[in-house]
Every structure is written in C-alpha cells, then in structure tokens.
Specification:
- The protein is about 40% helix and about 20% strand.
- The chain is built from 13 helices and eleven strands.
- Strands 1, 5, 6, 7, 8, 9, 10 and 11 form an eight-stranded mixed β-sheet that branches. A three-stranded mixed β-sheet has the order 2-4-3.
- A hairpin with a 6-residue loop joins strand 9 and strand 10.
- The longest helix is centred in the N-terminal third of the chain and has 59 residues.
Length: about 450
C-alpha cells in the first residue's frame, strides 16, 4: 500500500477522534473570541462610565488635582500667588494680572509668539494601555472611534516657554503639533484620575494610581506633554439698558456673557464658561513653513478671539481664513481684547490664556456688531435664538457679588474662576467699571 493509501486508511480509522478534536478546537476558538469580545466590551463600558463621571463631576476632580498641585508647589519659589492667594489655574508669579508701567493690561493683539519646536506625533509608537477598549490605539482614537466623540486632529499650538518681568509684557513661545497630541497627553490625565476613582474605587493620588500624571507632574516642564492652548475671553457689554430686572428697570449697566456649555462639546460639558473661547491654532489647515524654520511666528492670539466671536456670538458657522474675510477684518478693527494672564488647567493640564473684551453699545461701531441693540431683553432674545449646539449664552450683571458667585460656583470652569478672581481685585474694578455690591467682601 502506498503512502497516500496508508494516510487515507488512518483517517478513516480515526475519523471520529479527528472530528471530536476539530469540534473542540472550533469551540475553543469561538470561546476565545467571545472572551476577547466580552473583555473589550467590559473595557468599553468602563471607559463610558469614566467619561460620564468626568462630565458629571469634573469640578470635583478639578479640585482634587488643584489640591495636588498646590501641595506640590507650596514651597516652590515663584508660586506664592497660586498657592496662597487662591489661584484656580496653576501659574507662576507674574503670569496673571500683569500690567504695564501705567497700570494698564496688555492688548492680546500684541501676543504673536515665536514657534520654537514641533512636538513629536503621539499617534505613532502608541504604548499599550490596558485601561482602554482597544489597548493598542491612542486615547484620542478610542474616544473618536469607540465612543463616537466629535474629534478632529487639527493643527494646534501648545505653550513652550513663558518669560516675565515686572511691568513688561510676558514673552511667550509655542510648540506646534495637533489636537490629538493634546488629547493623548493632557486630556488623558483627566480620564486617568476619573478612572481610578470611578472604576477602581480608589481615592489615593500617588505615582502608583496616577502614573501618567506623576510622570509629568512638573507642569512648568512643557516638554513632558503637549499643553494645547485655549484662549478664553470674558465679553462685557457696557451701557446696556436693563429692562428685565424690575429693581434696576431703565438703568444703564454693564453685563458679562455667561456660557453654559452643552453636552455635545468635547471639553467642559455642562459647565459655566466665558464666551467666546476656542483653541489657538494655525489659520490654515496645513502648515506653510518648513520643518527647519524655527524662527516662524504663530498667528496673533487675537485672531482666535475674532474667529470664535464670529462663530459663537454672530452665529457664523466657521472662519478658517481670517485674512480674507471682510467681516473678520471689520471685527479686527472694532474688537480689542485685553490679556489677563495664563496658566495651566489643573485637571487636564492644558494651557489657558485669559482675556477680557469690552463692547460699548453706545458706540456706533460696537453697536453695529449686534444690530444696534441697546436693551438687555434684546440681547437675551438674540442669544436665545442662536441655538448653538455648544450651549446657551446668558447675560449676568457685572457686579462684585456676581463675580464672587461664579468664582465659587462648582460648575464654573477653572479659567472662568480665575477671570472672576482677577476682575474682582480692587485695582481692576475701576478699569472694567464693575459695580460694588454691599455684601461683597474680598
């Protein structure tokens, strides 16, 4: 009998056993795949719970992170204002409430930082992470593809260095990278803190429970992450006739715009914030400069305010190129935001630039922005009809009591709290014509 015949005979003799073995192998393969799927689903469910915890209790986690950094920097030279005077962002002395020799705030239009480096791409060489649904994908990709978050990997600027001197404009330099770099290195530490509390049920804040946060614990070393820059502007409407409050009926007052963020935004869902606010990024979708061009400058920070002002307050969908838009050129001539300072948001460690914008509705150019509206009810009706998916915009009286209220409100973002703190300082109340409240003590 030839070899083929012998094999065939053997197969016939042991066909029953082979069938059993094949059945077992198939069962094991199905079971293994099912277990893999169940483990994936478990990790996905844990991620959803963690994101929900951040949305519901973000400011609780924020306070925990703030306490951690205040403890760390309490004995460090140059951080007294942050640790002792009630700062809500993490910053060095001279980073906030800085003014020139005349006691005036610097104009945001003067801030056009040099680009000093390009951040490495965090979408490459992704480390294995057992806390994510897909353990070999980045945090940004997991959020985008497995949670359905509305994320885009757009170009973005991050803080590189800050130099300050008394009565001099701070000198800022930036690094360039992409939004996913920020998400993977900064927003992830928010997830890490919430995951430890929500999924692991632990309260300890140490290198074992929060390994990524503690690896980049020194926030002033900006090479340990990509601290993308957000530019946040408190908009003040001056000389508005109050026809809503009966006690103040007919009186001209100043109001600030309060933004209650919607549930669809990528950051700060459901929180109180200032408006306009947006990421500091190149005007164009792609970079024009070469890799070796280390002396290039970023766009002026004012451009971000103009872009977001058009989108969030004038209800224009998108401004990509500020240099070619007639409307944006007009905004540039009318709007003059002031630089209030900058610092790091404690929870996700991003950079927050703070500014204030005063619009006098009795001035023709200013009034033309909103169709020459002068009454509080007209503005409330205007912003109420915007129906912006990013949230609701409301008017609040610019009083010391109102500033204190929103500084202490658990729903206010850290950057908004810090702006309320800065404006409430005695030397700044006259600059912004803030009404004194009898019950206000600072």
């Amino acid at each position: 009998m030839n070899l083929i015949g012998q094999i065939w005979t053997w197969i016939n003799d042991y066909s029953g056993i082979l069938q059993i073995l094949l059945t077992i192998a198939g069962f094991l393969a199905i079971t293994r795949n099912q277990l893999r799927r169940e483990k994936f689903d478990e990790r996905l469910n844990n991620m959803k719970k963690t994101i929900d915890a951040i949305a519901a209790d973000r400011n609780l986690f924020m306070e925990n992170a703030l306490a951690l950094y205040k403890e760390q920097y309490r004995e460090k030279e140059g951080c007294r204002e942050f640790t002792e005077d009630g700062g809500h962002l993490v910053f060095r002395d001279g980073w906030v409430n800085c003014k020139d020799e005349n006691g005036d705030f610097f104009h945001l239009s003067a801030f056009k930082p040099a680009i000093t480096r390009r951040y490495h791409d965090t979408q490459e060489n992704i480390p294995y992470n057992p806390r994510l649904p897909d353990r070999t994908e980045s945090y940004a990709d997991n959020c985008k593809f497995h949670l359905g978050k509305n994320l885009f990997d757009a170009p973005l600027y991050a803080l590189d260095t800050v130099e300050t001197a008394p009565k001099k404009m701070p000198k800022i330099t930036v690094a360039e990278g992409h939004y996913f770099d920020f998400y993977n290195t900064c927003e992830y530490v928010s997830f890490e803190m919430a995951y430890v509390r929500r999924i692991l049920g632990k309260k300890e804040r140490n290198p074992r429970t929060l390994p990524v946060r503690f690896r980049q614990k020194d926030l002033f070393d900006t090479t340990n992450r990509f601290p993308g820059i957000g530019i946040n502007t408190l908009t003040i409407l001056k000389n508005v006739v109050d026809d809503v409050d009966e006690a103040e009926h007919g009186r001209k007052r100043s109001f600030f715009l309060l933004h209650k963020r919607g549930v669809k935004v990528a950051e700060g869902m459901g929180n109180y914030h200032v408006v306009p606010a947006g990421s500091y990024q190149p005007l164009q979708e792609y970079y024009d400069r070469k890799e070796t061009d280390s002396d290039a400058e970023a766009e002026t920070m004012k451009n971000t305010v103009l872009r977001e002002f058009g989108e969030e307050l004038l209800d224009y969908e998108e401004f990509l190129d500020l240099n070619t838009s007639d409307l944006l050129q007009r905004l540039h001539e009318i709007l003059h935001p002031l630089f209030l300072g900058l610092g790091f948001e404690p929870l996700n460690t991003k950079t927050e630039v703070l500014s204030a914008l005063v619009i006098d509705v009795e001035q023709d150019d200013d009034a033309s922005l909103f169709g020459h509206r002068t009454k509080r009810s007209e503005f409330e009706n205007l912003f109420g009809k915007n129906e912006n998916y990013e949230g609701d915009i409301m008017l609040r009286p610019l009083t010391t009591a109102m500033l204190q209220q929103y500084e202490n409100d658990s729903r206010s973002t850290a950057s908004m709290k810090e702006m309320m703190r800065i404006l409430a300082k005695k030397e700044n109340r006259a600059i912004f014509q803030i009404e004194e409240s009898a019950q206000f003590q600072y």
